[in-house]
Amino acid sequence: MSVVIDLNSSAVHAGFSFKESPDVSINPVYYNNDDPIFDPIPSSSTTTEPYTIFNDGILYNASITPAFIRHIYSQLNVSDESLPLVMAQNAWFDRKQLSKLSEIVFEDLEVPIFQIHERQLCTAYALAKPDVCLVVDIDSDYASSTPIVSGKVIRRSITRSHYAGDFLGACASKLLNLDNDENVNYSTAYSKSQEMSDIIHAALDTSDNDYVTLKGKNFSHSFTRDVINKSLLEPLFRPHSSSLGVPQDALGLGQLVLKSLQNTNTAPAALLSSLVVQGPYASAPSLEDALLSDIRLYVKDHQLAAYRSTDAVERITTPWMGANILSQFKDLNVTKQMYSEDPEIFARRIFG
After folding, report:
1. Contact (CB, 8 A) for 277 and 291
2. Number of domains in the chain
3. What does the pLDDT average to over 161-188?
4. Residues 9, 194, 66, 19: what is their CA dihedral angle, to the nearest 10 degrees?
5. How far is the CA of 174 from the CAs of 25, 169, 242, in angstroms?
6. Are 89 and 38 found together in one domain?
7. Mind listing the pLDDT tens digit for each residue in 49-87?
């Protein structure tokens, strides 16, 4: 049995390798008290701003990482740190981050057996597409396009932007003419962020309706479907159209995909016929069609096909499921002794 952890900035999912789905979902923020408080639920009197453990989808805060992993263990009711550990992290981590994480796992936590995998590759295995696919993520603080070929991430071909869920939250605030008061406590800011997230999901999930009513605590406004698409769907593909001061050359989803294709040696037809869309903001029923339509503006001679799970939970837990599958491959295990003899073993496996 292994502990399997999927690391991501919008939520960390964790569970056991003998399960089919993760047991816990954790908000990766903390209060920086004498003893850090993780996954805090803000009260109306909360004034302390929490710190994030992630940046651009990558676990970067090394000083808090050991305590955070132990917190994950506590949420799983795991008291035995001698269990094998399997982690998935977004594919654009670098050698320095990989080296620090493996050092923490083996030396601070003293885990005896460790695997680390790229989240997008885990998705490919979960969907039985490790030979070739292109994974498009739409998360809170990033959108990305990651090609997978012959069971490997084509790292030079990964493309990313920050125009994703949080950006749509700003678009929703503009559409609703809501004030952006920066002098608010964390509780208020957190509640507003959650409210914007709920509004975006509700708006995009009802894309077949002619009119959409966006409701919050202090407002209720109805908009035509054309207005919703222009204000909340089009900015994913044309960020500069949001009138939020986004540079004209900012890349949208379709352009991220095209840029990925330009940097690969693989025939684009294979990747374009196996697009996978995932993430908490990939919920819009029309999103697949919108993505394919946008790509067709640039690529006219290839057959396009996209897959997006109809299950909202699966769209965000598929990387965990893939990491669980890979945990069964014992030849991917690295023991503490192997690491001690060769600290660069992970870097060679992943970076070549």
Report:
1. yes
2. 3
3. 77
4. -80
5. 30, 9, 9
6. yes
7. 778 889 899 988 889 999 999 999 999 998 877 899 999
Burial category of 114 from C-beta neighbours within 10 Å (exposed 0-12, middle 13-18, buried 19 and up): buried
Specify if 124 maps to a domain: no
From first CA to last CA, the distance across the chain in angstroms is: 29
- pLDDT tens profile 85-135: 999 999 999 999 999 999 999 999 999 999 999 999 999 999 999 999 999
pLDDT in tens, 153-169: 999 999 999 999 889 88
What's the gap between Cα 141 and its chain centre?
8
Q: Are residues 236 and 169 in the same domain?
A: yes
- What range does the domain containing 273 cover? 132-162+249-314
Name residue 122's amino acid. Answer: C
CATH number of 346's domain = 3.30.420.40
Q: Which of 348, 343, 284, 316 is nearest to 99 (CA)?
A: 343
Take residue 72 and report the two structure tokens written for it: 């994950």
148 shares its domain with 256: yes
DSSP letters, 193-239, are HHHHHHHHHHHHHTTTSSEEEEE-SS-EEEEEHHHHIIIIIHHHH-G
Residues 98 and 236 in one domain: no
- 120, two tokens: 């997008």
Distances (CA, A) of 55 to 52, 90, 96, 137, 177: 8, 11, 15, 15, 29
Render the burial of 137-157: b for 16+ CB within 10 Å, e for the rest. bbbbbbbbbbbbbeeebbbeb
> What type of residue is 211?
Y
So what's the pLDDT on residue 46?
56
Which residue in this structure is represented by tokens 């601070």?
Answer: 108
Residue with tokens 């955070």, as numbered in its chain: 68
* Whether pTM exceeds 0.70: yes
- List the Cα angle 112/117/120 in 5-degree steps: 160
Of residues 137, 59, 49, 51, the one with CA closest to residue 102: 59
Question: What's the DSSP call for residue 249?
Answer: T
